[in-house]
Amino acid sequence: MKRMSLILVLLTLFAAGCALTPDIAPGGEEIEITDATGHQVTLPDTPQRIAIAGRATVMVQDAIYLFEEASTRVVALESRNQSAFAFLPVVDPGISDKEILEKNVGPEQIAVVNPDLVILKSFMAESIGEPLEQLGIPVVYLDLETPEAFYRDIEVLGQVFGAADRADEINDYYQARVDAVEAMVSGAADQPSVLTLRYSEDGGEVAFSVPPSSWLQTRLVETAGGRPVWKDLEGGSGWTVVNLEQIAAWNPEQIFLIDYAGGASDITAQLKNNPLWMGLRAVQEDQLYAFGYDFYSWDQPDTRWILGLQWLATRIHPDLTEDLDILAEVNSFYQTLYFLDQETIDREVLPILSGDLP
């Protein structure tokens, strides 16, 4: 069946007059890329028609738009639940002219837009990447899940856009801020016990869950000078649901609440008045916080993880981070990394900031 669908899309492309070889600008040099999976791809030149698809495209799109060339070279992207389309028009006024692929788009539909490169998250290799490569379309995979993976993937994007200097600038920006946070919290007398909780609601059923110990959310707490109480919990490969009894058994000094729907501030306000939560030390000592948020929550393997790290440090060790101005860092983030002027930031970003900002 898969072979037949590939044959059909080839016939469709021929009928539409689309070339099966990518539209690459002539006269350049070959680009050899080794991506997040160790997969090697050779591009005959800098790609001019880039498509972004698959799950977790928000993280991929946000990383790609750190490069100024993205606005002219990205021709198609997929719409997902945690939509990027509130943010991307701010950094790319031409976003409405691009091909918007349906959610869970298949390789055949991606091929029809005639990309000369498709960029996917690494876990999409088997379901989408391999069929695309069978169609002769180059694919590059990004991971972005840890700071180390982020730095490596930014270097890969520097190759994709022919902008190695910009990749170095981006990585230097992040590393300087990681180093600064580590230096600030290195003088801490102790590490407060910290619990990061994700709030979710499905069909009226509320659940709280914790991330795996290897995930970025755990790394951020540790780097910011906290002790993640859930780290030894035996969970699965994703978020693990925990009940109030387990939360009470941990009874951490601080709790940070995440809501990917953007309602963390309202939820923490409700929990502080909930008799079942009022017995927790973090609530009693006013240490239950809504995680920082603008277009997306700052805890994810998205470009905003550096804001999340800095914000956590100001909450975990406020006495050691008095010189860390989060609002100034937000302005710097959008100016340096997304090329926005202060007027645009004042209009588009600052009004939507939420979470317990210092």
Question: How would you briefly describe this protein structure?
Answer:
The protein has 358 residues and is of the alpha/beta class. The chain has helices spanning 2-16, 57-64, 70-73, 88-91, 107-112, 125-134, 147-160, 164-185, 216-223, 244-250, 264-272, 281-284, 305-316, 326-338, 342-349, and strands at 31-34, 40-43, 50-52, 74-78, 99-101, 117-121, 139-142, 193-202, 205-210, 227-228, 240-242, 254-258, 288-290.
Question: What can you see in these coordinates?
Answer:
The protein is built from 15 helices and 13 strands. It has two domains: 2-164, Rossmann fold, CATH 3.40.50; 186-352, Nitrogenase molybdenum iron protein domain (Rossmann fold). Helix 9 (216-223) crosses helix 13. It starts with a helix and ends in a 9-residue tail after the last helix. The chain is α/β, with parallel strands linked by helices and 358 residues long. The longest helix is centred in the middle third of the chain and has 22 residues, at 164-185.
Features:
13 strands; 15 helices; Rossmann fold; single chain; alpha/beta; six-stranded mixed sheet
